[in-house]
Amino acid sequence: MRLVVVGCAGSFPRADSAASAYLVQAEDAAGRTWTVLMDLGNGALGPLQALTDPTALDAVAISHLHADHMADLVVLNVLRRYRPQGPCPPVDLWGPEGTCDRLAAYAGKDPATDPTEQFVVHTWQEGVPVVVGPLTLEPVRVEHPIPAFGLRVSGPGDDDPSRTVTLAYTGDTDACEGLDRLAADADLLLAEAAYVEGRDDHLRGVHLTGRRAGEAATRGAARRLVLTHLPVWNDPQVALAEARQVYAGPVELAVPGAVHVL
What we know:
alpha/beta, Metallo-beta-lactamase, Chain A, 7 helices, 3'-tRNA processing endoribonuclease activity, Metallo-B-lactamas, Metal-dependent hydrolase
């Protein structure tokens, strides 16, 4: 199983990165590669096209309905619907309650850009896994101002397909019980770290800091930590240093185009 970073900017695109978007890929026993797109925030459709074929996705998984995690679904719909070869078959899209209405609102209820033409929308049910080829996605509700889910994605190890590995993606969250469930025994914890210790202490229930992400990785005995969703006004090295103060395992910053092999 592999994690590919498409975009990792927090709140809106940076000059060097689109907003949140990630690919999870794995091969099945027959050698077919399965691809799940996790989130597709502002500006992410551009780099997505350099990393995979957007017309050949096997599923789309949306953590929550803020624009920096799902706005480019509207233009992904346009790409898939109006390609010269004809429309793509609809792809399954999983998201929180209200996903279909939010997509329609972003599209302006214009029949020419109606996203339901290209997406079969399903609602996450906590505790109910979703199976996509060799990958299993488990939604875990987390703490954010709107309904939000992190995802535990399990699949075959890249070097040994008989071994099951787990990627945990926080989406956007503050420290909470759901975050600890996500991080528990994860081979890789992909954690947002949009806030800074000291500066943002009065803002709770929204985002993690590098320190809180590191504490979650430590409590859960996660084997690797990748920090993401850093807004343009943050110094990424501060988030990295915060995490390293409380987490002894390997920790790094998400970088567009990076491939993390599990």
